[in-house]
Amino acid sequence: MDHSSDKMLCPSARATTGSKLIGIRQADGTVAILPEALPVTQQFVDTASVGGKDPQQHFRFTNKCVEHGCKQWTGSRCGVADRIVDEIETLINFDENNLPACSIRSQCRWYNQWNYKACNACPYVVTKITEEEINAFIAAHGEAIEQ
C-alpha cells in the first residue's frame, strides 16, 4: 500500500467537480459504499443541490486528503477517523473478514489509520447531518451511546 501523503484520499470530502462519488445514503441512515467510485461533474453537483439541498446529506464523496489544509487534521492524522472509530466501537462489532467493497481502500486515509475498523465504521458516516437526524439517532440509540 502506498502511504505517501499526496496519494491519500479523504473518504468524506465535499461534492465538487473532480471529487468522486463513493456512497449513497440509504433510508435507514447508513451509507451504501459503491464498489467503484464515480466521477463528480458540475452537472451532478448542480442537480444534487437543487432546492437548497446539501449533497453531503445524501451522498459520500472522496477527494485528495489535504492534511494541514483541513480543519480536521490533528497535526499527524485525521481526527475524524479517530473520533469515528472511538465512538462507533461501542455500537458495532468490528469484523476484519466482512468489509464492504471499496474502490479507494488502498489510498483511504481512514483505512491507513485504522485498517478494517475504519471500513466497518464507514457505512455509518454521513458527512452532513441535520440536527433533527442527530436528535432522532440519540432517541433511538441513547442507551447504547451512554454506556
How does this structure look, described?
The chain has helices spanning 42-48, 79-88, 109-114, 116-121, 131-146, and strands at 9-13, 20-25, 31-39, 59-64. The chain starts with 8 loop residues before the first strand and ends with a helix. It is 31% helix and 18% strand. It is α+β, with helices and mostly antiparallel strands and 147 residues long. The chain has one domain (5-146). The radius of gyration is 15 Å and the shape is globular. Strands 1-4-2-3 form a 4-stranded antiparallel β-sheet, with no helix packed on it. The longest helix is centred in the last third of the chain and has 16 residues, at 131-146. Residues 143-147 have low confidence and may be disordered.
In short:
This protein has 147 residues and is of the alpha+beta class.
Indicate the multimeric state. Answer: single chain
Rounded to the nearest angstrom, the distance between the terminal CA atoms is 36 Å
Secondary-structure element string: EEEHEHHHH
How does the major sheet shape up?
Answer: 4 strands, antiparallel
Helix content: 25-40%
Keywords:
4-stranded antiparallel sheet, single chain, alpha+beta, disordered C terminus, 5 helices, 147 residues
Write the SSE topology.
Blueprint: E1 9-13, E2 20-25, E3 31-39, H1 42-48, E4 59-64, H2 79-88, H3 109-114, H4 116-121, H5 131-146
Antiparallel strand pairs: 1-4, 2-3, 2-4
